[in-house]
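#structure-requests
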Amino acid sequence: MNIALFLPRLDDGGAERVMLQLGAAFSARGHAVDLVVAIPGGPLEPRVPRGVRLVDLGARRSIQALPALVSHVRRERPYAILSTLEHANILSVWAVKLARTPTRTVLREASVLLPRDQMRGLRPHVQRALMRRVYPMASAVVAVSKSVEDDLVTGLGLRRGHVRTIYNPVVESGLEAKANEPLDDPWFAPGAPPVILGVGRLSPEKDFATLIRAFAEVRAKRPARLVILGEGKERGALEALAKELGVAGDVRLPGYDVNPFRYMRRARVFVLSSLYEGLPGALIQAMACGCRVVGTDCPGGVRETIELAAAPGAGVIVPMRSAPKIAAAVLQLLEDADRGPERVAHRVEPFSERASVDAYLDVLRGGAEARAPDASARTAAFEKNAPT
């Protein structure tokens, strides 16, 4: 197949990294892959895989790229276009319809829908209305977890058969080798206090403040340390909180690390404290590294992931924003690790690169999904809602 992957820009985000990974995997299987970006540049541009052609539409804003995207689809006539992020998904459907080609449009949705009472300003309401009208016109919609699938069905009114859950290719083929790379850090040396690990952007939705409060409760009962990998605008507030709670000497925020797996392999417990998740990639990667895990029961795929993949007794689900519950779960898992093996064997095959790529190629070809909405109905809906 000739496959086009469409993104607004190559920002350093989870959606962008997944698309690069899929592009590399599709190319390795012999498919011609164009990575089409609306806006040039972005921190991930140097990481475009060999064998994937980068197509820069040269726009300043995503919506301005629509004419160029139409031209690209009309000229190249890809068998399928896979897009991600809401505004890019809307544009890809419009572009294929305006180009009047038989290209299949597959939309990837990576997060649960934001509740309406948390939608600030006019823009998210307009985008939600467009999603409700445009998503049914796509050939298929991919959700990254069953929770996201349920949200798309109930929140956008999509037919259940029009949406398919495909887990992200979180457990990549080189993860094991990266996990075994050296880590020159005295906190992870043999005989040092056990390390509790968090990974993610330092932003409010990750709720690392609750994790630090939970750690203070753990630290009051036994020796331990906390490392949070990631960067973001919450750094100052989190560092101040650790100091206020008297645990700053046992809390480190080293920033972003290109290889978090070597930390996951050596940490005793991994904690995901988020307020919402589409699919908790860092949690799954920690499980692939053999870490005992704690995850909040937030909207999204955390409960689904732990119930599907966690080894018995090695994955605990706790309420959101509850430092005491997180602390109790961490203390129990630390005790288990003291008595038993440090590493445990979780069942992460459903999140492997092989399984994910197989499923994506199946959807892009047009298999394994219910019949798409009637073509004439899609065309009529498009003509009503397309930009002029």
